Amino acid sequence: MRLAGKTAIVTGGARGIGAAVVRALAAEGARVLVTDVLDDEGKHLADELGGNVAYRHLDVTDEAGWREVVAAAEREFGPVAVLVNNAGIVEFGTIEAQPPESFRRVLEVNLVGAWLGMRATLPSLRRAGGGCVVNISSTAGLLGYTNLGGYVASKWALRGLTKTAALEFARDGVRVVSVHPGPIRTPMTGGMGDELTADQPIARFGEPEEVAAMVRFLVTEATYSTGTEFVVDGGAATGVVAPAA
Length: 245
Ligand code: NAD
Fold this sequence. Notes:
alpha/beta; binds nicotinamide-adenine-dinucleotide; 16% strand
């Protein structure tokens, strides 16, 4: 129970990777505020996990909403020691084809949402005496992908923002790291087939719990790591399998 007495906020925590992170942090004794726009699923998860886990609606692009959520977390559980910026969306389209409003929407949720979250939570992290921020990026923050320009741009930017935050928050005892999952079986990847992972060294989709295990490690044990990347991708970003000569 390495997080007993600590308060955590997880965005996009109602399902997928976020829900697995909520479970992992709660299992370490953390008091977790689950936030999402999927209210039924979020409430259901909080009810299942009991008194140390609560749910609140938060669209991460809503600056006033962020202030209310941090205040609610402090009121109900105490100052926030852990923030996991996990909420994210994916929209497809080549640079030529993706409508500008789609490109902007992806940046707004995946990048601006995390930026708003770090701004809103920093005073509480100070009051907690320090802590850890985990930004869920992607292998799309390490590589380029066709048809995913907005998503790739958002995840590279989140990776860079993590480094600035690590530098700025260090004086308050706050570590800031990015996590880069490869293909993980969640509702986001529901329509994708196994051929996507066929050339990876570990040739299967990952499970949300495998990402959550990394987040738990970063929050509880990685006391000398900040401003850097942690990859959970079955080796997907290692290289390209060339055709036989
Ligand atoms: P998911 O779609 O299952 O979960 C994403 C959650 O974010 C959902 O509960 C959704 O309601 C919430 N969300 C979306 N927009 C929001 C908003 N504006 N405000 C608040 N919540 C919002 O997807 P997932 O696979 O669990 O993805 C979680 C994170 O992991 C995302 O940032 C995603 O980009 C990243 N990721 C996923 C994969 C993968 O293969 N699944 C790979 C790399 C990175």
